Amino acid sequence: MSATTIIGDRVRNATEPRARDVDVVFAAGYSATAAPIGESVLVVGPLLRSAGHAVVEVNSTIAVADSTSLVVRYTHANAESTVGPLGAEGVGSAITVTGTVARVSFASTADAVVVLVDTPSGPAVFVAPDEVRILDTETDLAGNPLSTLVFDGVEIASPVPVSRELATDVRLRLALVHAALIAGAAQRCAEMTVAHTSTRKQFGRTLDHFQAVKQNEALLLQEVALVRGVVRVALRHLDAAGSGPLSAAGRTAVTAAVVQAAVSAGEIARLSHQLHGAIGFTELSDLHLYTTRLWASRDAIGRGWASRLGTSAIAAGADGVWNLVTASTEGLNR
After folding, report:
1. Contact at 8 Å (CB) between 204 and 211?
2. How large is the angle between the packed helices 287-301 and 248-276, nearest 10 degrees?
3. For the residues of 35-101, what is the DSSP string, one character each?
4. How many beta carbons lie within 10 A of that of residue 16, not counting itself?
5. C-beta of residue 164 within 8 angstroms of C-beta of residue 154
6. 38 or 76, greater pLDDT
7. Could you tell me what percentage of the chain is helix, strand and coil, using 3-state DSSP and rounding each to the nearest 5?
8. What values do phi and psi take at 138, rounded to 5?
9. I need a labelling partner for 253 at 20 to 30 A (CA). Which of 96, 152, 202, 293 fits?
């Protein structure tokens, strides 16, 4: 299914904030869509809107460069400056970018790749020009392309500055995209598993008549409901923030959702395959289309989120932990 098919009439209003983008991203996970829909609607769109930049094509992805992957200097350097290397100070806004950004999802198939970099004057975004080489160097566990962007002294005439807060939120938003994809794929895994156990027979009875199967099926549905619930709360915080930075409660909610989704992904895949039996691993079943996406999104989320959540809880102290938990839903429309 294409990005345009899923987003439908939202394409015509791509410059406006969308309160129901959560359903679009869930649908992408549910249908195993091989397109950067989540990145487009939950990361690229809000980031460009906040910077006053026209929203680019619907099928767009984002590359987040850290300080070690790219060297960014002013194109028109101040030769008399004694601050840092040549190009650390300059005239005008044009920058020259050299280096690589690895593991960018769907960069080779997207209509546009938006790049977030740290320039000498702060964070900025730009749309990667044709001079940037895009190499398909690997794939994720679901077979989706992970590309490397190669900048060989590429000049960017007008990078768009963004606030440090918004730049920090980009990684949170990206992680939440994958949490939402997990929620959508998990729902499909549950539906396929229930359909399988209610029709497949052993010893004269359908599988769902056996107590052990019932128990594992209940555990599966529990995990699916859990991840979907926490992701929905986090996405409501994104909706409340609009194109601005997330609130402190919003950052906590997003981090909690990302942690839970990463944990649940493995458990949902395990239970789904266990209840399907050997057929779930074969081409005869579509289950692998969704479980591999669970694993791929879990890998994309990465590590360190639980530590970040724990650090927030410790910083809140004994008297603040309850407020930290309950604040995740305060001020949100029910």
Report:
1. no
2. 150
3. S-HHHIIIIIHHHHHHTTPPP--SSEEEEE--TTTEEEEESSB-TT--SSSTTSSBSSS-EEEEEEE
4. 11
5. no
6. 38
7. 55, 20, 30
8. -165, 175
9. 293
To the nearest whole number, what is the mean pLDDT of the chain? 86
Give the integer Cα–Cα distance in Å for 33 and 123: 31
Chain-centroid distance of CA 140 in Å reads 14
The answer to whether 37 and 24 are in contact (CB under 8 A) is yes
* The predicted structure's pLDDT at residue 88: 59
Domain boundary among 142, 162, 182: 162
Quick check: 151 and 109 in contact, CB under 8 A?
Answer: no
Within-domain flag for 333: no
DSSP letter (8 states) at residue 13: G
DSSP 246: P
Which residues touch 123 (CB under 8 Å, ≥6 apart)? 116, 117, 161, 162, 163, 164, 166, 167
Handedness of CA 315, 318, 319, 323 (dihedral sign): positive
Let me know: does 237 contact 249? Beta carbons within 8 Å: yes
For 11-60, what is each residue's pLDDT tens digit? Answer: 334 434 454 677 889 999 999 999 999 999 899 988 888 877 766 657 89
Query: Which CATH number covers residue 132?
Result: 2.40.110.10
Predicted TM-score (pTM) of this structure: 0.89
191 token code pair? 């539906």
42 found inside a domain: no
Domain count within the chain: 2
237 belongs to a structural domain: yes
**Residue carrying structure tokens 């500055």:** 161
